[in-house]
Amino acid sequence: MSQIVYVNGDYVAAADAKVSVFDRGFLMADAVYEVTSVIGGKIVDFDGHATRLQRSMRELDMVPPVTMDELLAIHRELITRNNLDEGGIYLQITRGAPTERDFAWPDPEEVPCGIVLFTFSKPLVDSKVMDEGIKVVSLPDERWGRRDIKTTQLLYPSYAKMQAKKQGAQDAWLVEDGFVTEGTANNAYIVKDGTIITRQLSNDILHGITRAAILRFAKEAQMKIEERPFTIAEAQEADEAFVTSATGFCQPVIEIDGAQIGSGVPGNISKRLREIYTAEMTAAAI
Ligand code: PDD
User: Fold this and answer.
1) Whether residue 203 sits in one domain with residue 183
2) pTM given for the model
3) What's the number of domains the chain is made of?
4) Would residue 77 be called left, alpha or beta, if left means φ above 0 and alpha means ψ between -120 and 50 degrees?
5) 121, 140, 169 — which closes off a domain?
6) Fewest CB atoms within 10 Å of the CB: 92, 97, 202, 250?
7) Element (H, E) at 218
8) Which residues are annotated as catalytic?
9) CATH number for position 257
10) Spacing, Cα 186 to ligand 1 middle (Å)
11) Which residues have CB under 6 Å of ligand 1?
12) How far apart are CA 116 and CA 50, in angstroms?
């Protein structure tokens, strides 16, 4: 069966999908996106992703090309048409395709936003990586200053991921002014003496939808939480470390810049949070 994608109002075979060369997402990374996970053919935390998408668009003066109800219907239609059981849905909204390349934004009345969605399958619930944990290295955070807006400017995160791989790690933790901001595509946490420590929300990091759920479940389980910045040195002395994202859930980190974290295997708190998150989100998926 060929993959079916959604492009500006149409469901088409991926091989036949087309966007303009003048699309500002393509020319200028003038686009916002969301990645939402799917378990058992159902969407995880659609409301969280739809709310953040609307905020990203508002911050950039983009006019949504569809309502959030229509967006939900598109997600569901793509799941059905692609027979998706476990994996995710990528959604991108661009500032559309004017007739020429110009730094100034086009009038939204004349140039409507473009919208593209596609599905992908990926094991989320049972994953070998989750059982083993990942190694990360630290790199300077050289992204722009509005990381709270989920834009498709992903060259630096992707460059950082490659630097990490060259150093034998799976991911990088980005560091600014001596403190960890987040991972290349996930939020970062450490655990010390039973307290979960993660950077507070601001323009410096993406306001992770998984982060919000994990912190809510941690509170409900009476775990202690401190929202504050931490350094790589503090992380290396921590009992546990982990990252969260829509497509990674809660993923243990077992080594940072060559230093083993705790006993070098996934910690109990990250394992417990992953179990709770998987169970709650599977039950709440729509
Ligand atoms: N990335 N921080 C960054 C920089 C991210 O790119 C992501 C998600 C997160 C976690 O956010 P959430 O829990 O809402 O997925 C944090 C997605 C998965 C991606 O780019 O593929």
Assistant:
1) yes
2) 0.96
3) 2
4) alpha
5) 121
6) 202
7) helix 209-220
8) 150
9) 3.20.10.10
10) 5
11) 35, 182, 185-187, 206, 208-211, 244-247
12) 15
Crossing angle (nearest 10°) for helices 209-220 and 268-284: 110
Ligand 1 atom nearest the C-alpha of 90 is 21
Structural domain boundaries, residue 96: 4-121
What distance in angstroms lies between residue 9's CA and the mean position of ligand 1's atoms? 26
Q: Which atom of ligand 1 approaches the CA of 48 most closely?
A: 14
Together in a domain, 108 and 248: no
Testing ligand 1's pocket by substitution, the residue of 204, 206, 210, 242 carrying the most ligand atoms inside 8 A of its CB is: 206
On whether the CB atoms of residues 75 and 36 are closer than 8 A, the answer is: yes
The answer to whether residues 177 and 231 belong to one domain is yes
Distance 174 CA to ligand 1 centre (A): 14
On the CB side of 221, how many CA atoms lie within 13 Å of its CA? Answer: 20
Looking up tokens 């393509």, which residue turns up? 26
Q: What is the mean pLDDT of each run of 10 residues along the chain (286 residues)?
A: 93 97 98 98 98 98 97 98 98 97 97 98 86 94 98 98 98 98 98 98 98 98 97 98 96 97 94 95 94
Single-letter residue type at 24: R
Is there a contact between 174 and 183 (Cβ–Cβ < 8 Å)?
yes
Q: At which of 121, 143, 178 does a domain end? A: 121
Q: Do residue 243 and residue 173 come from a single domain? A: yes
Ligand 1 centroid – CA 109 distance (Å):
31
**Sign for the pseudo-dihedral over CA of 253, 239, 167, 231:** positive
Can you tell me which atom of ligand 1 is nearest the CA of 187? Answer: 16
